[in-house]
Fold each of these.
Amino acid sequence: METVTLTPTKTPELMFEGYSITPDAFAGKTAAEIAELPGHEGKIVMKLGDFFTVSGNGGATAADTNIHIAGDCTRVKYIGARMTAGSVTVDGNADMYVGGWMKGGKVLVKGNVDSFCGIQMEGGEIEVLGSAQNHVGCAYRGDWRGMKGGLIRIHGKAGNDIGTFMLGGTIIIEGDVFIHVSTHAEGGTIIVKGDVEGRVGGQMVKGEIYVLGKIMYMMPGFKKVDRVEKEVDGVKAVFDHYIGDLGERHPKSKGKEVYANLYVKAQ
Amino acid sequence: MSGGEIIIKGGFVIDPTQKIDGDVKDIAIKDGKIVEKVGSSAKVIDAKGKVVMAGGVDIHSHVAGPKVNAGRLLRPEDKLRSGTLRSSKAQKNGYRMESGFSIPSVFKTGYDYARMGYAFVMEAAMPPLMAPHVHEEIHDTPIIDEAALPVFGNNWFIMEYLKNHEVENTAAYIAWLLKVSKGYGVKIVNPGGTAAWSWGLNCLKLDDQVPFFDITPQEILTGLMEANEYLGLPHSIHVHQNNLGNPGNYPVTIDSLKLAEGVKARNKFGREQVMHSTHLQFHSYGGEGWGTFCSKAKEVMDYVNKQKNITIDLGCVTLDETTTMTADGPFEHHLHALNHLKWTNVDVELETAAGIVPYIYSKDVLPNAVQWATGLELALFAKDMNRTFITTDHPNAGPFTRYPRVIKWLMNKKSREAVLATMKNMDKVIDATNIHTIDRELNLYEIAQMTRSGPAKALGLAHIYGGLAPGLDANVSIFDLNYKDMPKDPEKIEAAFQRAAYFLKSGEIVVKDGEVLTHGHKKTIWVNPKMKEIPQVTRDVSEAFRKGTYTVGISNYPVREYLAPHPMVIDVDVEA
């Protein structure tokens, strides 16, 4: 197991597209070779070495490569995007698309992330100690194939459009969420430990949502069916169980229609 | 660019227009044209061990206009598959960012065609009302020369004239519309069917009645064919037939083709056909439903082979995730009901409509696999490759950037079998098609006929494109293929056609080693039929605008000069 340390030396004038900052790209390369890897700043092709000092060599494979960014990446996009194994740790904040399309490995951001964190993710794990902006684990704009697998855990709060078109995997937001949770989802699980303003599960076909706080405005397409006790991410509680979205088509299994389930902690 | 002298030395030249098949020859270029010889100071391009062909000619592709743009808006996710967005080389040469896969940006469209060595592309469906937009996009597409076919098959004026079989009036209307829209010829999409779609109906057979207009698809087709020959246009009618994409549609296809029997081509451009039947793959199916869906490519081609006054293009399914878009509005709604993906529809006043739906052609879905085989079979059953052209009906059956892959499949049985072997329903595909039993492998000469000499002749453009004879435009593509020692690995054929070693457009080197070097000097071609005015038609058109049947006034309808700033106008003297 090798660790490559990137230390930020300069704040990019425009956002820097750090699509090369993945264990897959670093594997098998020396520190000097890693510093030569490309990234765009606007329309200009720059090098990682223009913004970071690099120390340590990559491991033989992505799985043997850890990346440690010892500083802030508020203006660096695509950290860990499309990675398949290994790990990336960012000591500060990160910009958009952290762990987007990732298939495996782990990304840890100790600060906040911007939008599109874990977009269309297929596997692996993303942990954010701070908060996230919008579109956590959602589908790319226009696409109808969202997050398929893996785990995203945001310790702080998140904005809107969480898990849009989700098909699988788990998203846990420990703080509050604004609006649009699991819109169009056909699978997967979202756990919100704080409150949600509204629009939870709109046009949702299948999948699970747990809200441990309050939903200020419920969607009219959800119907309360019973009250159940469940343990969710280490918290045991009694939930009001809703099914929906009743306005949407639903698949049948063994002659019965399958609905999405929304569990809201009983007050 | 003009002036510079260039000589392409020592390549294996393939030019069906001069019956040259792999002879080692030099090609001389001066002032943007091919010439007999040049001076000793000419720039030398070494083509030794490489294949030299004319620039490619694409007879049918949806690359510009409101329909394509609606597709771009509907599918932002298509940009995820753009490939190389911004190479450092591109940046150095100062050219524009590329985006999109099945509906590429105008810049990517021009660059990708140029990288494949294509010189001319026909935009296959221009709604006349939207012609200004089509021309703006054409103008913004670098390098390649383009023209656009306005759609006539569901036009209210045309249907009014043809229900009384007024061919001369129809011709006068066509002549007017080609002029004001800067169009090239007569496109017909689902004749009568798209008009019927305004009533929620369709025309699936030749004798179905179009609601309100009291006319049939057959009358529209024969009437427009007569009007086209009356005018003597460079291209024939260009037909997307009725009942596209449905099981068991091949008898309608053959019946439509039969309408050309006995009709003679009348033009001064060397065109011999009176009907071009486009994306024939979508029209060559048997079976009573999707369960019994099968290829009828052999039956259709048996007819095409003996009927000399028709030409076809393939519309090959390339097994990609793509975006379907056509003026066949009812078909797109039908497709949306089949695949449940997002759908949009556009209605163009008195003229036409369009629908758009994303589509994923999967080798493991039986009907898609049969479609894949059907497209290739059409070419493999064809006897006259000069009447059979390679297309993917871009982007409907696949993006145009897959032409090299289609060429590979046509040239190499092993590569076809390799695809077949990975199909989930291989045995069922073999039962429903002929592809497994066909051993034919096309050669480079036949590929040059299908992509160069053939389409240029069918478009009436053989005096500019499609060959390497002196006097033609100096559009020359050089591919890294050894004619005498063709690669055993079929992937190398695809790679060679994907990125030309060189492409010269109008005598200027625009691509080298598959990289675009310059934006070139593109032209927009349109046809100007000089027909005497018929007062009734002039009155009908101005009355329609005056009464407000259109949302624009007649003075805002034509395409202004500035929208097509590099025109090449083909004048047609109409002898009544």
Amino acid sequence: MRFVILVMMASVLSAQTPSGNAQNGKKLFESIGCWQCHGHEGQGGAGARIAPRPIAFAAFQKYVRQPADQMPPYTAKVVSDQDLADIYAFLQSIPQPPAAKSVPILNR
Amino acid sequence: MANRRNFLKGAAAGAAALVAKTPLAKAQQQQAQNRGAALPSATALAAETGPVATSVEAMTADHPGSDFMVDILKALGFEYIAANPGSSFRSLHESIINYGGNKAPELITCCHEESSVHMSDGYAKVEGKPMAVMAHSTVGCQHASMAIYNAFAGRVPVFVILGNTIDANARRPGVEWLHSAQDATAMVREFTKWDDLPISLTHFAESSIRAYKIAMTPPMAPVVIVADSELQEAPIADRAKLRIPKLTLASPPAGESGAVAEVAKLLVAAENPVILADRAVRSEAGMKLLVELAETLQAPVLSGKFPSRHPLSIAGGRGLIRNADVILGMEVPDFWGTVNNVRDQQEKSVQPLTKRGAKLISISANDLFIKSNYQDFERYTEVDIALAADPETTLPSLIEACKRLITPDRKRALEDRGKKLAAAHEQALEQARTAATYAWDATPISTARMAAELWEVIRDKDWALAGGAGASRLWNIDKHYRTISGAGAAGVGYSAPASVGAALAHRKHGRLVVSIQNDGDLMYAPGVLWTAAHHRIPLMSVMHNNRAYHQEVMHVQRMANRHQRGITNAGIGTTITDPNIDYATVARGLGIHGEGPITDPKDLGPALRRGIEIVQRGEPVLIDVVTQPR
């Protein structure tokens, strides 16, 4: 039963998350200026951290189109839905960082 | 005004006799004989060495007026005077180095007047008093003006002396006219606290003492005194008749007792008070008072001058402001912007961050002094109580007033709040540690990694961050002098010279001084690195080299997005690439140790350790780190 639910959830998620090209997403992330506020690896800076483990694609897309706070909106006129899917794929591809406790100089 | 031109009449003497008598003629004769060359004619020598037949001024003086000016500078206790040399203050320059022995004040050679003033700004933030600056009244003051504005908006005391020649008849032709103005301080009057054009040495003494006192009375700010060249160069007629008035600094204004009692009542009764203390603290004693107030109330504090590892130290704080019922803002330059949220989006919107009924209290010396032209006073803030007073001076009476009102029951409630805030503080620290791990091994190097590596090499020393990008949340900022604030008016080009000035102030205390130096900022006047080398000012500048005027990249990006076009073009005109600047080479060319560019985070720690060794030998060093944008 549990297995069936997991499969159903996975299929729902995949339906909501369009397939994207992470390599192209990385290029777009740089060329359209996402890195300026979010850092080259989405770690955050002037803007919020957005990787790894980005928020669900639907929320991500909604925020990019109509940001709630200071982020400039990226309309479909300048960034297509497919471009967003590629960027999202890039963000998903970013590996997990080390645990803070495993980095001695962060614990002084 | 004294006349330096004492005309000699009948000065023409026999040229031939002079040829034989003057030391120069003798030397030339001897030199020519040694070389076996033909001697110049007597006429030629006379033309070079002899007095002309017309009236001539006696330009020698044992003690020019500028010697007395040096006496004044010494009386005011200036350790240093920064200047890019200029003919309009040549006599004062000479008096400082010869009559004054180039000590207290010592002349600091700067490559730009903006550097002179910004150095003075950084020095004052550490030392709590100004160092002096000399500049030309026109071109020098024009160069200095942005830095003076930064000091004005930052409420920093800076003492500027402008060389000028007011008497048209006394000016040499050409450049001296270009370097004179009839109202030399007009250009900066809108953003200085006081200025004067003294026309006698007695006047100069009185105005200098007055200017110093004004600069040091909160709200502190720059002052400018014109040193007329005639006044500098003319001989002192009778030194015994000149005196320097006694300096008595004004006691800063403290809050009126009734208003203080009202503030205390609100704070003690508040369920969720917040203390904002941007520029409230300017000394170690002030920092301790701020801690005492926070602990008395068990209230969170948002301030760069509050110990960062104190349980009541809170970073960010928007959530606290939203939840606050009483907000105490002490010397907050933009109180309105702190308690409101402005969205700069497709449509601009403004929303109060505070909840309905929240009480706002302001304690600020800025209510005592404001000018109209430059808009550094920010938007008008609607507050419930406003004390026109110096916060640091008001803190003791406010603390006492709060203590008097706290009953044992209230104390228990406050302690419970303190425990919750301490837990939130610990949680925020953990979150900051986790946040620092993201992009830990990235190239370019993350700013969090850079800050962590830098902290690792300074944390066991008596360190100070002398400007540039702010200290990390993870650093233990436990003393007032550990950090200085940024450019008062956000004028870029501040950090490099201010950090050298701050390092100069730290030098006699033997502190290990570092700065996190933004690349765009350094390129305004990189010559200040030479000043650091020349004067052996120990400072490790760690470049935050993101190869852009990054804030402007984001602004242009915002505009492109808003206009829905060209969103890939934000780098045009905002980035510092093609070619990349090799800052280590620039540093070496200016006489300081340079290392980098460092792009691999694994190389950073060892480079910083090498840099620290150099700084501890008393020399400046620059480590170029290629970084993520923010």
